[in-house]
Write a structure and sequence with these properties.
Layout lengths: L1 H24 L5 H4 L11 H8 L3 H7 L1 H15 L6 H51 L1
Helix pairs in contact: 1-3
Length: 137
């Protein structure tokens, strides 16, 4: 019984590991993941590893914690922001200030136009009331 259990865990680990490697290389074989290949890179997540391995997520989380940690570490390492030079950071901060100023100007213009529309609607309402009054008379 024990040998059988170890054998099953070994097969699971092998399936999960191979699926993890395929995902890292972008070589998916799972029909569920193949649908998303055209939309870009498929992220390496525990769920996608399980889909690629055609196995449940439960054994990965219960019995293969070290592999799960590798998957999560890979995901974090891949998502780490690039190192930027001081010049690049300064340039981006300047652009951010410019965009903030432009946004401020657009908000001011938006408010001015909103007030002008309200004024014109009030004048239009007054003109309609005068017209109705002149038609009745």
């Amino acid at each position: 019984m024990r040998a059988r259990s170890h054998s099953k865990l070994g097969r699971q680990r092998k399936d999960y590991s191979e699926a993890f490697e395929r995902l890292k290389k972008g070589q998916v074989t799972s029909p569920q993941l193949l649908k998303f290949v055209g939309s870009g890179v498929i992220p390496v997540t525990p769920t996608n590893v399980c889909l690629e391995a055609k196995r449940s997520r439960t054994p990965l989380y219960r019995n293969h914690r070290e592999l799960l940690r590798q998957i999560l570490d890979f995901k974090v390492a891949k998502a780490a922001p690039p190192k930027l030079s001081a010049r690049t950071i300064e340039s981006l901060n300047e652009k951010l200030k410019e965009m903030g100023t432009a946004q401020s100007l657009m908000a001011t213009e938006n408010l001015r136009l909103t007030l002008r529309i309200a004024e014109l609607e009030r004048l239009l309402g007054r003109a309609r009331r005068r017209r109705k009054a002149s038609i009745r008379a």
